[in-house]
């Protein structure tokens, strides 16, 4: 005999099977109804444990989901035929999922339903199959972020970037980091719409500047290390050849050049601005022996990039990315459009606490680094090079 709970386990295995999940949710030919056989009790069980059989029958009579098929069976030990559950029929995706008795799967199904209702998916049925297949992508992303990626993908066409970097493309409501967060989903959606055209990558298909041409600003804070005060260098060139000096300040955004101390104040030091999420070049051998500091936005993605940088460079020191700085300039804080929801590996204990604090206060979850006063940032940078206490500026400066 099998109880409703026993068959729910079998149904959950069906959900975990990608091909079966596709067949049922796309309602392919012959997909419905789903019929699960319910083994009939043996004669020996009926004679030896009649109470268990009664409870089995009662459990199936209580089922309201789908349709239970009953059959009359005669046993030697019974005077009349006994009505017993023979099969469980589930006629729709909603019945199928509800019968699984799993809240997480129910939420997953509901989210798929909302995404399937988006106009971009309604107009492109193949995209629903992509979303059903890529279960892990949906589990690890905020629903709003996935919806934005779908809306963005619907606006993309071959060559539409016209040589611009992906993050520079002017699509309303799309922040630059979405390209990195949802790159896999964007690629899969476009592949389903344009088979064979993305074999050379997303940038090639869109006609965008390739990742290898991500330009970084290299700033001479020593005043005598480089022939020019500021050089613009490609990230893949920095992966092979480093600038002179023995200390490096890594700054998330290009816009913070004016926050740096004037040239000549920091001996043997260069700053590199604008890396964003492009941090693979930090594996370069020339960086391993240098003092390195990192300064980025106070938000969940800034802390995520800090953690990624620290995985390449464990000696790294964070600047102005702490709870004290956030509290001092809380009036500059705003909401983060799409926060990172997974705690990244590589954060120190106090940084993990800050990450949790940002998620708990979404309306005050972001302070962009360029909003900090110049004096505050410069003081933190100078103290780092002087060997003082780490990242938080001392708070001596007023707002």
UniProtKB/TrEMBL annotation:
In this protein, which residues make up the domain named DUF3322? Answer: 4-190
Superkingdom of source: Bacteria
Wadjet protein JetD C-terminal domain residues are 231-380
Q: So where does this one cross the membrane?
A: none
Pfam (any one): JetD_C
Question: Which InterPro entries has this protein been placed in?
Answer: DUF3322, JetD_C, UCP028408
Please state what the protein is called: DUF3322 and DUF2220 domain-containing protein
